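In this section we walk through a basic example: taking a raw amino acid sequence and producing a predicted 3D structure, encoded as discrete structure tokens. The instruction is simple. Fold the sequence below.
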Amino acid sequence: MYSTDDTIAAISTPPGEGGIGIVRLSGEDAIAIASRLFRSSKGKDLMTVRSHTILHGSIIDPATENPVDEVLVSVMRAPSTYTREDVVEINCHGGLLPLRKVLELALREGARLAGPGEFTFRAFINGRIDLSQAEATMDLIRAKTERSGRIALTQLSGGLSERITRFRDQITEVVAVVEAYIDFPEEEIELDLMEDLILKIEEVLRELGILSETYEEGRFFREGLGVAIVGRPNVGKSSLLNALIREERAIVTEIPGTTRDVIEESLSLKGIPLRIMDTAGIRETHDLAEREGVARSLKAIEGADLVLAVLDLSEPLHPEDREVLRKVQDGRALLVLNKSDLPARLAIDELPEGMPAVRISAKTGEGLEELREEMEALVLGNRSLDEGVMLTNLRHKNAVDIAIEGLERGIKAMRENAPLEIVSIELREALQSLGEIVGEVSTEDILEHIFGRFCIGK
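The resulting token sequence is shown next.
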């Protein structure tokens, strides 16, 4: 993994033009490196200014004394910084050229180019945040709706960490008692004490079970739900996509087979991010490109959380419509009967019984609000979607489930009067699994997987 003994630097703002771009440095020599590049407009020295001071001036190339950019420089001294190291942020004009030049000078003066997520990695290593908070940092950056952002912020502020730490403390108390009796084998653990220990573990088990069940809802907010729009050619799939996102994103023509690939757009439904996928029309075709599009459509159906099966109300049911219906009858489908603005020729009694259906006109907008309500009902079901502490990460979900299994085996061993060494092993496995969530127990592989998904500069 990354070394923490040097000073790192990176551009911390997105590429492209903007009002401001930031080059960030962190490490023991961050202020010294910046001071060799910076000339204050009021003659101040970065090495002597107070922490959390912003100075105006210019970045100068030390080799030529030529100015590079007019900047504002923020000096933040350890430990009151994001990384708990000395941090300098150089606010440049937001063009690619000045940012790259300033970064190049920082590297020339002794900094090392930061790797993906290395600033946040240092915040973790230096104890400012734990591993679940580090992951929440990325979730907050990637949040697509206000509700998913609030949930990520709860994680970032330590909501999940506090709960996991409390569970670990409760288990540790039981382990301490069990291992005390292991150390003094001549003492036999009393029945009443054993029952009390079992009750404590059962309480943790109950709360862990509730937490584990929040994952499906948490996944909704973190990853978004995949919604595939499917149907035979020219039933209005692309028109429906455009109507839902209120933008002319997909090409709409009278020519069947216009859509050859899956087009994906984002939409918010009750604060849940949706990934709406317009797919190629499903039909038999000899066109190689269209055939590949059909294959991708079928794959989209398999991976979708919800399928909008679009039919044309103005035409009788086609054999290709029947093929589409056959592929989506698994409880995740909603029939969208399009072109309600035209005379109806579709026989409703030929449609599958029990499958919810909505009449709409993607052209006029009729029925779109009802469609959104039906989508919401199918997606949410009876879920209340609380915004408290929940699991949004599969790694956390797996760790909680492993802990639950360990605690269950521990209780079984206690009830069966198994050797206390076995009880201790099972409870410690649960402790270790929960520790992996917050980073109390971690491996280099886990850290590389987590921080490798970050952008450089964060």
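Looking at the output, two observations stand out. The radius of gyration is 29 Å. Residues 249-260 have pLDDT under 50 and may be disordered. In the next section we compare this with other chains.
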